[in-house]
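@channel sequence for tomorrow's demo:
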Amino acid sequence: MWVKALDMILEKMKSSGFNFSHVRAFSGAGQQHGSVYWKEGASQILKNLSPDLPLHQLLKACFSVSDSPVWMDSSTTTQCLSLEKAVGGAQHLANITGSRACERFTGNQIAKIYSQNPEVYAQTERISVVSSFAASLFLSAYAPIDYCDGSGMNLLQIRDKIWSTACLNACAPGLEEKLGPVVLSSSVLGSVSPYYIQRYGFSPDCKVVAFTGDNPASLAGMKLEEGDIAISLGTSDTLFLWIKEPTPALEGHIFCNPVDSQAYMALLCFKNGSLIRERIRDDCASGSWDEFSKALKCTVVGNNGNLGFYFDVIEITPEAVGIHRFNRDNNKVPDFPKEVEIRALIEGQFMAKRIHAEKLGYKIMPRTRIVATGGASYNKEILQVLSDVFSAPVYTIDTANSACLGCAYRAIHGLVAETSVSLVDVVKLAPEPRLVVTPTAGSDQLYEPLLKRYAELEQKVLYSPNSSILAKLQEKEKSKTSSRN
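structure tokens (generated this afternoon):
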């Protein structure tokens, strides 16, 4: 399907008159964590592609696994537990690879294929992630995995930027040979293959820059710099953070940075995003975003000490569930006035994001910018709370597809990266994010004790033995065990 999609895109561009000979370089992005399994002999087929036929016809016999595992697969809990045990526990694995074992991560998916279909694994000569698979199509040869996408596999030592022997051995035998090398994300992998020169008219000098994951590509597309935060306020809320000194934790992920080899990016995902905001809007603001915004404007910064935790579904960061409200004396209360409820929701969501970002090593700097995208980024009052909680200005961007734009930026950067030119220098003439709000005066001093209280309540109250959250989590684990049995 992916190969045929590429055929269709290139044929449409060709029929529209696009001049491929003008392309000096290109890069690309793929869904993170997904994997593609090349059958023995596929490399020879790649080397000898006939420009008279579309790729999907030429490559149809090249894959040992016909249905690629992707990021939505969560069937590898057994393999995750085995990997963590093999390296000394979840935190030790996070210290090595940037993340505790995750069901969707590539190493665990490979381990499942090896354990369930060892003959298929034996017939596989190369395993690509989606991004390196796509780059391989343009090179007509196996492309290496870049550091950044490689750090979303539970297999790469993120500080040394080499495969972890312990992790490889825990997943499958002979895995390093099947994965091939890892490379700098700005590496020029080579020139586009003769197939594309002859079939589409690409220049023989057109360069292929290492492809990477979709989230890292978005970081490049948003032109983030050290200390910056990108936050996507959608169905789930996602934070991208540019950090220098990461501290991997059991929550969130640390990846190598796609545009600065000396830095890292952190990713945090919060499942309770726009859906809980919409529910509270419906319950407390008559379904009106205008009324919701008025409530934020008419309540004071800090909400007079009232704090709330709003998890309609079991949260990822932290793993918790339920609605929990606390007054300024830390006493649990059954409800808040409607305006207070709205501010408690938004303040609570953003305080959780800052607390967990700082756990991963993020530090707010004087030049920190927050770049907001997603549906809620159109609501100025919500962004004002975000700015106040993080004590940083909030910007928005007009680009709908930041991952695609990031690939274009990275392609330009790849041509000059060896001369130590930074991505920032390369794209300095590109449109800048638009400033929307700045922090309210005095909000940093006001939120400092609130953030401490929120973190303490999250740890001491939400996970206390009498907490309904703990009971529900235990019930969830019991259900998981029953399912496995």
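heads up for whoever presents: Confidence is low (pLDDT under 50) at residues 479-485.
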